[in-house]
What we know:
Elements: H1 17-21, E1 26-32, E2 43-48, E3 53-56, E4 59-62, H2 70-77, E5 85-92, H3 106-114, E6 122-124, E7 144-149, E8 153-159, H4 171-186, H5 198-207, E9 222-225, H6 227-236, H7 265-271, H8 283-288, H9 291-298
Parallel strand pairs: 2-5, 5-8
Antiparallel strand pairs: 1-9, 2-3, 3-4, 6-7, 7-8
Amino acid sequence: MAPTGEQERTLPSIPAGAEGDRWIYAEPNLTSKRPNFKQATRQMAFLDTATGVLVWQGGTVTLDLGRASVAEILTAVYASVPADVERIYITAGDPWHQSAGRHQFLKDAVAEWLNGPLPEGWQVESSRGKDRQAGHLVHPRNPVGRWQRGKDQHTEIRSVGEWFDPAGAGPATVRAAFVELWKALRRHWDDVVLMGSPSQTGRDLWSRTIPAKAGAKWADGYPVMSQEIRGLLHATAGQGRTELITPPRVPERVPGWFEMDRTFAYAKHTWTSGVGVPQRVTSAALAAMSEKEQAVLQALGRQALEAEEL
C-alpha cells in the first residue's frame, strides 16, 4: 500500500542548482584500469550427486559417493580426474542440504556440510594468488567450498545454480552450456576465461573493455564518478522490493503468478552504458534535443533525467 503521512519519504536525487552541479566531476587520481594479465583457465568438472555421474573434459564416469559428504566427493572425484581440475560444479543433488531437517536455517546446514571431516592431506583453503579467493562462502542455496591438498592442489565445490537453472539437465548438458557460453563471449573478448561465478566473470570482462592500445581513448583507464553520484546509484538501484497488495487493488483471488528470470539482465543493462564524467540533463535540455538524440540517451543502461522548473 502507498505510504501516507509520516511514512512518506523522498527518494535521493541530485540537488537542484549549483549544489547539484558540484556532484558532476571525476574522482582525481583514480581510474579503472585494464588488467595487465590473462586470467588462468580453471579446469572444471560437473557432478550430479544424486546419480553419481561426473563429466569433465576427459570423459564421463559414475561414482559411488556414499552420502555425498565433502570427504566422499573429494575422494571419489580425484580418484577419477587429474589434480588440475580445480572447480567441481554440482548440477543436482544439493548435498549441502543433507542435514536441513536438523536446523532452523538452511545456512546452518550448509555450514555443517562445508566444515565436515576431510580426507587425509586436505584442509580448508587458507591462501591463494591475487586473482583468487580463499575460504568458504556459506550461502543457503549456492554455497562455495574451497579446499587444498598440500601447497599446489586447490579445488572449489560450487553450485551450478550460480549460472543456470539446470531444470533436470544432466552434467553433460550443463557442461555443453558452459562451452556455448564461452564461445559466445569469445566473439567479444578473445581472452575470456569463465571464472567461478557470473559476477566474477562480468567484472573481469568489463575491465577488459578498457582499450589496451596506447593512445586510444580511455587507454589510461575509465574515470571514476564522484563519490556523491556513486552513492546515489547505490541508494536507488536496489535488487527489487517486496510489496503487499491487497483488495480492492486486486481481486480476492489472484488470476495467476508469473516468474521472470532476469539472471542475464545486468549484461543487457550495462552493454551500452557510457563511461566518463556524467552529463546533467534537465527537462528543458531534453526537450530541445532531436528525436534521434533523445532515443540515444534513453537507450542507455541507466538514465537519471532530472526535471527542473523552466
